[in-house]
Amino acid sequence: MEALLRWATDLGVSDTPPPRSPSAATSSSSSSCLGRSLVVADFPDAGGRGLAAARDLRRGELVLRVPRAAMLTSDRVMADDPRVAACVRAYRSRLSPVQVW
Prior knowledge:
By secondary structure, the chain is of the alpha+beta class. It folds into two domains: about 70 residues, no CATH class; about 30 residues, no CATH class. It contains four helices and two strands. The longest helix is centred in the first third of the chain and has 10 residues.
């Protein structure tokens, strides 16, 4: 889990508001992207791990920032892996509307 959180931190995933100045962005000493608003928690009745609120949250409050570079999107996977792209093109007509591809 620590390696995953370090990876996410390196990509810019964070549960803190964006820095107001460029110098504030480099002064962060946290090695984890979570802890201010969210924590990793185990939910055995719901099937495993997930994110839980670390404190009371306000309506409309930003609780997680995920840069586009950290997102696994169908466009990105299709662009990055020609084999996946070929499979999706070949079977697109068989995919259901709930499947993201």
